Amino acid sequence: RDAGIPYKVPETSDMSGRIDAVLTVIYLIFNEGYASTHGEPLVRADLCAEAIRLARLIRLLMAPYPPEEATGLL
After folding, report:
1. What residue spans of 1-74 are helical by DSSP H?
2. In terms of pTM, does the model score above 0.70?
3. Nearest CA to 32 among 11, 47, 17, 14?
4. Angle 15-34/45-61 helices, nearest 10 degrees?
5. Are 27 and 73 in contact (CB under 8 A)?
6. What secondary structure letter does DSSP report for 12?
7. If we measure between CA atoms, which residue out of 6, 7, 10, 5 comes closest to residue 61?
8. pLDDT tens digits along 3-62
9. N or C: fewer beta carbons within 10 Å in the chain?
């Protein structure tokens, strides 16, 4: 908002250029949950569960041809 960059939902044609970044973030969320770098619990089940939920959501939203990488995250 402060940068003045407008929010807009990407067009379907723009999705392929963005999905790699989205999948990378999901991977990093799971990694942080599996081996937490901050706090007492080593494993953060909440982050692991959220990463799994997001990967499943990507597969659902991009059906019938979800990216193979999304399946690999599961």
Report:
1. 15-34, 45-61, 68-73
2. yes
3. 47
4. 160
5. yes
6. G
7. 10
8. 777 888 878 788 778 899 999 999 999 999 999 888 788 899 999 999 999 999 999 998
9. N
Tokens 């399946």 belong to: 71
Residue in this structure with the two tokens 């982050």, named with its chain if needed: 47
In a 3-state reduction of DSSP, which class is residue 67? coil
**Cα distances (angstroms) measured from residue 69 to each of 35, 50, 59:** 21, 17, 10
Burial grade of 22 (CB within 10 A; 0-12, 13-18, 19 or more): middle
Locate tokens 């995250």: which residue? Answer: 73
